[in-house]
Specification:
single chain, about 180 residues
Length: about 180
């Protein structure tokens, strides 16, 4: 995800203010809510992006929409962003805040793709394997892809462990497709 300088600055500013007011966890939960709304509701994102709706009306809509679900600090931050005419950046600011928070708290996102859903024993086994590799807290994201046939693909940061049957079959197919015949031997 590419983030602009403004997005990073606003996210860092909210983290700094939240730390000063001892409300970092609350702000993190608020940004999760805001990110979830932005990801699930395209009309909301279009509202933020449209220049037709005036700033005062956007502030009123945002206040009415998030008055009960966001803290006062986050709501005033969203209002300030809207007054500065940067409301189009709110989804990216929320995502950037979440990633900076996780980096600050040493939380790693690990993506596990399997052919069938993980049961509890296998999930614990994967978690212990990953914890041996890193000293971070782990947030496991599971995905099911039946084309793997079996096995798993584990992704963390820029590392990937592919222990799927489909990749093993592709490797075998590539090995067998090589011509091992040596002419004039």
């Amino acid at each position: 995800m590419k983030q602009s300088r403004a997005t990073i600055r606003y996210a860092k500013s909210l983290i700094a203010i939240s730390n000063e007011q001892s409300a970092l966890e609350t702000s993190f939960n608020d940004m999760l809510v805001l990110s979830s709304v932005c990801n699930s509701n395209r009309d909301f994102v279009n509202l933020l992006k449209t220049p037709i709706v005036k700033t005062d009306l956007k502030i009123n809509i945002l206040t009415n929409l998030f008055a009960k679900s966001l803290s006062d600090l986050t709501l005033s931050f969203v209002t300030l962003i809207t007054k500065k005419k940067r409301e189009t950046l709110l989804p990216e600011i929320a995502d950037c805040f979440i990633s900076l928070y996780k980096k600050n708290k040493n939380i790693k996102e690990v993506y596990v793709t399997t052919a069938t859903p993980l049961d509890q024993d296998l999930r614990e086994e994967v978690m212990t394997y990953i914890k041996k590799q890193t000293d971070s807290k782990i947030e496991l994201k599971e995905n099911v892809d039946e084309s793997l046939i079996g096995g798993a693909i584990i992704r963390m940061d820029d590392k990937q462990l592919d222990a799927s049957i489909s990749s093993s079959l592709k490797s075998l197919k590539q090995q067998f497709s090589e011509n091992l015949y040596i002419q004039n031997y």
